[in-house]
Design a protein that fits this description.
CATH topology: Nuclear Transport Factor 2, Chain: A
Strand content: over 45%
Strand order of the largest sheet: 2-1-6-5-4-3
CATH class: Alpha Beta
Distance between the termini: 46 Å
Number of helices: 3
Radius of gyration: 16 Å
Structural class: alpha+beta
Shape: globular
Number of strands: 6
Largest sheet: 6 strands, mixed
Order of helices and strands: HHEEHEEEE
Number of domains: 1
């Protein structure tokens, strides 16, 4: 694999990380789910969610009155070969339940809900690069859990 091919894979994987954050923050869950391979898995709060249907059902459980935003930084992608890559991304998550649907903005700015890392495994599929597995690892969280 040449350096240009490696850079293209790294960018495709970064785009998946950024896209997943963008779509989930905005509640565009159908667009978020297709960024995973069909049997993709996301381990959130220690609970594994596997496959598009299970991922979508979980995402759809979020109340429409909650505003969520993830600040994404320090995306490091390691290409293993032409079909596999891994990555670690730092995130900071803010959320607030406005009590209104649609949420009344601007929401009050408080402390972040959590700061952590996403540990991702990427796979090349006939549809292009997809997330095969994501594990959310919280490093910091507000004591009140809100």
């Amino acid at each position: 694999m040449d350096a240009n091919e490696k850079r293209l894979i790294e960018q495709d994987c970064r785009d998946l990380v950024i896209g997943l954050g963008f779509y989930t923050d905005r509640g565009e869950n159908e667009k978020a789910v297709v960024l995973f391979s069909p049997d993709g898995q996301w381990i959130r709060a220690g609970k594994p969610l596997t496959g598009h249907r299970e991922l979508l059902d979980s995402m759809n459980e979020r109340s429409p009155t909650i505003v969520v935003r993830h600040l994404i930084a320090n995306i490091k992608i390691d290409v293993k070969d032409g079909n596999a890559a891994e990555g670690v991304t730092c995130y900071t998550a803010y959320n607030h339940d406005t009590g209104a649907n649609p949420p009344k903005l601007p929401a009050p700015l408080g402390l972040p809900f959590s700061l952590g890392e996403w540990h991702d495994k990427f796979v090349h599929t006939p549809q292009g690069w997809r997330i095969a597995k994501r594990e959310t690892k919280r490093l910091f969280q507000r004591p009140d859990g809100k």
